[in-house]
Amino acid sequence: MVITAVNDQPIPAGLSREQLLEIFYYLTLTRALEERLVNLYRQGKVIGGLYRSLGQEGESVGSAYALQSGDVLSPLIRNLGSMLVKGARPVEVLRQYMAKATSPTAGREMNVHFNDLDLGYLGQVSPLGDMIPVMAGICLSFKMRGEPRVGLVYIGDGGASTGAFHEGINLAAASRLPLVVIIENNGYAYSTPTSAQAATERLADRAKAYGIPGETIDGNDVLLVYETTKAAADRARAGAGAAIIEVVTYRRKGHAEHDDQRYQPPEEIALWAETNDPIDRYVQRLLESGWAIEAELDAVGDSVNAELDAAVAECENDPLPDIAGALTDVYACSAGEPLWFRRLDA
Ligand SMILES: Cc1ncc(C[n+]2csc(CCOP(=O)(O)OP(=O)(O)O)c2C)c(N)n1
Ligand SMILES: [Mg+2]
Is 321 helix (H, G, I), strand (E, B) or coil? Predict the structure, then answer.
């Protein structure tokens, strides 16, 4: 695509105009894909819960975009954007959420629990915090093999209160492992506000206790998140060890679609939506800096809509799993051997 700038402010962080537009594509895709999923959820076609990242797309996309090929990230429920940046395709995501036989887990796993190790995103597990020691282990393997690879793990303000968080970061810090930990401080852990979760002023202050760098940044400034994550990843890749980045953002929807978020003041939600939306802010910056023109952004929006129309149509026609095969690859047993829990005759 030929990009015509209307004025020429220098682009930060070594990014090109094409990359700025690609970031816009991922932001738009994340929000639009989640909107499609909400429609499907309301039609009863999404199996399981639906957790939105509305208002947090900037930190997911900005941080994942800072990684290189070969780096690995461990997402959580609000990191659909990170997985898309790593190469997850909307049609696979839709199949997974609709538990289709053609989905990455063939309809046998909870909708958010899927991975693509070749692309470099792990599957999430439900126990919060537990992926931090797992990622520390993965980063230990990078270090032992002398591979210049980095791990990025996301954790919420609530998940940052777990024992696993402490154990995993302490291991990464003490062993100087190439691990970047992003704490997504979105104000709430289910109905618990962050102020009731931790007595420290900033969650990143905990980094001091581990002896690693920690900083708190505006999580709805996409380019700042990109730059900060890239700097931490570059340091980690060069052997300087782990870091914590606390991204301050806001959870504009309830914990999941079933949650009416009555515990969040409506005026608080409205203020973040009206004045601090990460995509609105990014668009404003692109246009005001002359890094893109409106027609280019409209074209990205149109192509995202077309991509999602095709993905939804393709996935809707896919079959659900065959009941007879529902347990294939779930339990270890030889072909023909009765499943251990089905031995009702015993
Ligand atoms: C160890 C553990 N405790 C509790 C839960 C139940 N649970 C799932 S999500 C959630 C809230 C998480 O809040 P936060 O970490 O702030 O992430 P957010 O949902 O805000 O992105 C809780 C308590 C869990 N999955 N694991
Ligand atoms: Mg939270």
Answer: coil
Can you read off the two tokens belonging to residue 9? 């402010």
Ligand 1 proximity of 251 Cβ (cutoff 6 Å): yes
In the reported structure, the alpha carbon of residue 220 is separated from the centroid of ligand 2 by a whole-number distance in angstroms of 15
**Which ligand 1 atom lies nearest to the CA of residue 156?**
15
> Could you give the C-alpha distances from 321 to 116, 212, 326, in angstroms and in order?
20, 47, 7
Cβ atoms of residues 140 and 177 within 8 Å: yes
Residue range 12-253+279-342, CATH number? 3.40.50.970
CA 130 to mean position of chain CA atoms: 16
Q: Which residues pair with 188 in a beta bridge?
A: 193
Q: Where are the domains of the chain?
A: 12-253+279-342
Residue of 23, 40, 152, 149 whose CA lies nearest to 81: 23
In the predicted model, is pLDDT for residue 338 greater than 70? no
Query: Tokens in use for 215?
Result: 């900083």
Beta-carbon count within 10 A of 80 CB: 28
Q: State the pLDDT at residue 243.
A: 98
pTM for this predicted structure: 0.94
Q: What is the DSSP letter of 124?
A: P
Q: What is the pLDDT of residue 2?
A: 42
